[in-house]
Amino acid sequence: MSLPRLLTLIATICLTLGLIIGLVSSLTGLYTQVAWSASPLLANLLILAIVVLLGTLIFAIVYYLNLLKIPQKTKGKRVIKPKVPVIKSEAATENLKAIRQQVDRIQDEVARQALLLKAREIEASMARGSIRIVVFGTGSAGKTSAVNALVGRMAGQVGAPMGTTEVEATYTLKLKGIDRELAITDTPGILEAGVAGTYREELARQLAARADLILFVLDGDLRKSEYEPLRNLAEIGKRSIVVFNKIDLYLDSDREEILSRLRERVKGLVATMDVVEISANPQPVRLENGTIFQPDPDIMPLIRRVAAILRAEGEDLIADNILLQSQHLGDQARKLIDAQRRRQADKVVERFQWIGAGVIAVTPLPVVDLLATAAVNAQMVVEISKIYGCELNIDRAKELAFSLAKTLASLGIVEGVIQIVSRALQLSVAGFVLGKAIQAVSAAYLTRIAGKSFIEYFRHDQDWGDGGIAEVVQRQFQLNRKDEFVKAFVKDAIARVVEPLNIYQKSEESELEIVAELESKIEPEPLYRSQEYEDWETYSNKQKDEW
């Protein structure tokens, strides 16, 4: 603290103490005088009243000083402003960058190019900066008439033909008070019959999904078939104005009733003030003298509402729409990558299920050996983890495989699989090979359930979910026990496992030849071969020796 400020503070404290001492001295003298001249009780009451009055005065001064305090300007200091949140368009840009990285991993050339095209369309929308308004509804609701009236009223001309719209038509114009350009798109009608109608409806829905603002045109009360698309648009975050058109066809009392019901039925989807009534193409009226009078379109309620929304929320609507489109595109990319990974992982599972069957087939054990299948599963886990970008070492893979094997046994799935396989094989296989065939095919079946469970585990970022490993395994068992699947699986197993077993049992070939025959039917793909061995035969023989 500087010396002048310190001296000022000391002087203020001394003055305050002096005033307090003077006040106390005065109160003491007053108390003494009243006590002697009147009574001690009256003197006490007087002093109490003075103290209360002073306290109230001090409180009032402090209160009003705080209430009316004017913030002072800081000189020579930088005012720290709160951080501005991330702009939505910047978030969309980051999403597009991430999407491009994801697209590089998609093997399907057609799907990859389609995603890149959509990404470029979003980038073009960001660069263009126009506000996209889409007119949406049934073909009979008067969408084209509404577009004609809007364009004619705001731009002074009508460019769209009357009648059925089979493809989209877009008109560009300016609205007073709105800096950005408006692009109004007339879409094909929804809920039309036939293949062509379904195609046009899909086109209309796609255009609506890319809109910044939607004008949902009706010509009467809201039907259930119209409510569903309106709700779907609201669920994906689209802002809509419900336009009650053709009001010239209704009596005033009926019109008010319909408007009231509309606002009630769209509550939660569309704000009350966003339900407007218009007459885009009024019917001509015959006057008493016989002449035909054509009323002007009554479109101003819609124009005023559109202008109010765009002035207040236009920038947010554009940013929200771009961000929504980029997020949707990201979801599409992730689904494609997930499907691609699942196809690759399914091939790994299919290969290892027959390897597991081969191991059991050449191992003379009275029951299905879970330890042997768990050893096969461990290598399967390693290869599935690589597909999902998770590098697991063999020790961790063995832990997962043995944990799942214990779960299979504890849930009774092993016994259930053996029963399913036994019933299926007894109809197709006879003789001394049946017992070993049941063991081998059961092992393949269990390996399949394990593999499908591990796919779910890695798909969800190495998380078994709330129900744990038991719930995942049970679900996969139920999915893989349907009659159609069991029949196809057993048929495949007979060709890959049972028939080779029968041939080699009769000719008393060596066990290694059986495994070689099984592996020749498996036809492993180079993508999944272990890098630790020079070829597949060396790798499989090494695995067999370890098991």
How many beta-strand elements? 8
Average predicted local confidence, pLDDT:
77
Percent of residues in beta strands: 5-15%
Euclidean distance between termini CA atoms: 83 Å
Helix proportion: 55-70%
Q: Radius of gyration from the CA trace?
A: 40 Å
What oligomeric assembly is this protein in? single chain
Q: Main sheet?
A: 6 strands, mixed
Low-pLDDT residue spans: 67-86, 156-163, 503-512, 521-547
SSE succession: HHHHEHEEHEHEHEEEHHHHHHHHH
Number of helices: 17
Identify the overall geometry.
flat
- Widest beta sheet: strand line-up: 2-3-1-4-5-6
Classification by helices and strands: alpha/beta
Describe this structure in words.
With 547 residues, the protein is α/β, with parallel strands linked by helices. It is 64% helix and 6% strand. The chain contains 17 helices and eight strands. The strands form two sheets. It has a six-stranded mixed beta sheet, with helices on both faces. A two-stranded antiparallel ribbon has the order 7-8. Strand 5, helix 8 and strand 6 form a beta-alpha-beta unit. Helix 3 packs parallel to helix 9. The longest helix has 62 residues, at 300-361. It is flat. 31% of the residues are buried. The model is unreliable at 67-86, 156-163, 503-512 and 521-547 (pLDDT under 50).
